[in-house]
Predict the structure.
Amino acid sequence: MIDEQPRLITLENISKAYDDVTVLNNINLYIRKKEFVTLLGPSGCGKTTTLRIIGGFETPDAGRVIFDDMDVTGLPPYKRRVNTVFQKYALFPHLNVRDNIAFGLKIKKTPKTEIDRKVDKMLDLVNLQGFQKRSVDSLSGGQQQRIAIARALVNEPEVLLLDEPLGALDLKLRKEMQIELKNMQQRLGITFLYVTHDQEEALTMSDTIVVMRNGEILQIGKPKQIYDEPKNAYVANFIGESNIFRGKMLQDELVEFCNNKFICVDSGFGENVPVDVVIRPEDIIIVGEDVGQITGTVKSVLFKGVHFEMIIDAGHSTWKVHSTTMQPEGSRVGLSVVPFNIHIMKPMQDGWYPYQEKEVTAND
Amino acid sequence: MKIVKRVYLGLILLFLYVPILVMIILSFNGGRSWAQWGGFSFQPYADLFANKRVLNPLIVTITIAILASLFSTIIGTLAAIGIFSMKRKPQSMMMTLTNIPMTMPDIVTGVSLLLLFIFLNIKRGYITMLLAHITFDVPYVIVSVLPKLKQMNKHSYEAALDLGATPIYSLFHVIIPEIAPGIVTGALLSFTLSIDDFTISYFAASGSNVQNLSTLIYSSARKGIKAELFALSTIMFVVMLVLLILINRTPKSEKAKNA
């Protein structure tokens, strides 16, 4: 189990600013051996900077990077036991595929026969047998990506850093590569630190997801944990789809929102304190109008393949519901949620809320 | 309209190249007088190669062109890499400083270099001519190399470091191979400029007996024009032509490789 592996990389109180603009604000994070960790967040949240600090391309203004009990904060990239797959691959155009992969081995003065053996093995691994003599310019984006991965992995790094490596690929290829990368990581037993803004990608591949925003870590957890128990409205909104409401915790296990009182399973917030409430669209059950906790009119229906997405207008609030049975547009329905599926969160410190404007108009 | 266009172009080319053409024809003049046609002959060329006074300036011209393009290519390439990695403001300042010497009239560069050599009490001669040539070549190398650096994938250098290369190893095994076409263009350009220079060479070596071909032709022409001067000028013209074709071909073959 991942949880029993020793810690390989630790970031301690890392801060970084460019020209007075704070990019990272006091980041603390550890990565275990063989763990697949994803830094997830919108562009500008500091995820790439965090990766570049671990790679040695940036020096933090404050804080330390610990690698296997050794402080490597000031160590240049070429002395670190990590390798990177860059966003635009950064293959060397003047070298052919073999020499690109062999670049790191040549520096280590590996004998030629050994280099050839390792290059062949890597091309096997990324499924590009026989590409040794090809020029990198003649390869497609997906193939260049695989060569970039092979070029990094051939050096047998303890950690592989990947900076949005699938960003330039089309959807189908991206999905295939996600699975391939995950398999590769498990087979080789290497630690992966993966940067992406794609929440689905993060949920599919990771052992641990680190959600970042504005240079701060909002939540660290397993994919299911982050999905089921988001720490705040931002995480809930960023990961998966959700209904988020402003509410008030009346007492333990009793919350008020959308002008209704709901029984829930959360406690320890205090009495009469403002909270954010998240309910996933698939956790809402459509019942008869007379028995629902909330009643409303079906405003729109979208067919999404596996389920229907219905938007239900309940007067003061709007609900997004996923269900395999369709209710026709304009029909009156009742909505019901079991207490276990009502998730209560502390409001964000800066008051962030996903659809402020809608709420204002709804209260009018 | 089409005819007008063609005639216009023809006239321009005629005005541009007739003097050179006349000179080339006269360089094969077998007659005694340099202005009267006395039949086709290689005599001026024979005279030229027999003339001991030409040999030294020829060696000076070639060795200075080689040394100046070598040094200016090294200095200019390193300068371009330095300028490239600067932040935006100092970068644009450095580029202005690079562009000024290129637009400055040669005579200003020549006189100011002469004044500098006098001020520093350096004896004029071969070395001062070489220094002067390196000076005016460097900006041309910089402007040839810089665009190649800008075309480079910005993570190439980092990727090399990431794979265990030291900054020096990355410079020689990643950066320089990637910008090589720009370096070659810069080297050929400075070689051409150096062979072809008169004004700056004239001032930089003034007062010494070191001459290159341009200054030799100038001083010989003052003593009296002979057909062998035309032969010498024709050879220089052909050499320049070949070099220019080479320079213009480099970027094209590069494009063909990438396509």
Q: What stands out?
A: Confidence is low (pLDDT under 50) at residues 357-364 of chain A.
